[in-house]
Amino acid sequence: MGDSIRRQYNCAICGKQHDIVLPLNISRDKGNFPFAHVFLHKMERDGNIEEKDIDILTTLYIDADLAIRHVEVKKLVKSDIIFKNDSKNIISRLMEEIARLQEENARLVRALKTATKG
């Protein structure tokens, strides 16, 4: 676990405290803090069997020290979201593109600083 950190957050919908493992470099290249980290988790409330497998859209707002500053949760009904695998693929592609654009931005900022020095 040397390249990750464990954090906890409370879900106001299922009433549980959850552990999440975050990579230590998750905040690298983030321009603004806190930044949003979005994911799904399953309903874990005891009792109501109809709610057992409901997805909960979770947004964690994380600061530069990887502390969770705020949590937003939303219960999803099946019509709220695309198929989970499709959404994971879309999110994965978007995250890759965001990372590429952040790297390109950093490269351009360095080039601009170099150009303005001389």
Summarize the topology.
Layout: E1 4-10, E2 17-23, E3 35-42, E4 55-62, E5 68-75, H1 84-117
Antiparallel strand pairs: 1-2, 3-4, 4-5
Molecular structure report:
The chain is of the alpha+beta class and 118 residues long. The protein folds into 2 domains: 1-81, no CATH class; 82-118. It is built from 1 helix and 5 strands, in the order E-E-E-E-E-H. The strands form 2 sheets. Strands 3-4-5 form a 3-stranded antiparallel β-sheet, with no helix packed on it. A two-stranded antiparallel sheet has the order 1-2. The longest helix is centred in the C-terminal third of the chain and has 34 residues, at 84-117. It is elongated. 3% of the residues are buried.
Sheet bearing the most strands, described?
3 strands, antiparallel
- β-strand percent reads 25-35%
Instruction: Give start-end ranges of low-pLDDT stretches.
Output: none
Overall number of domains: 2
Shape call: elongated
Rounded radius of gyration (Å): 18 Å
Helix content: 25-40%
Number of separate helices: 1
Widest sheet: strand order? Answer: 3-4-5
Number of strands: 5
The residue-averaged pLDDT reads 86
Please tag this protein with its features.
32% strand
What is the structure about, briefly put?
The chain is an alpha+beta fold and about 120 residues long.
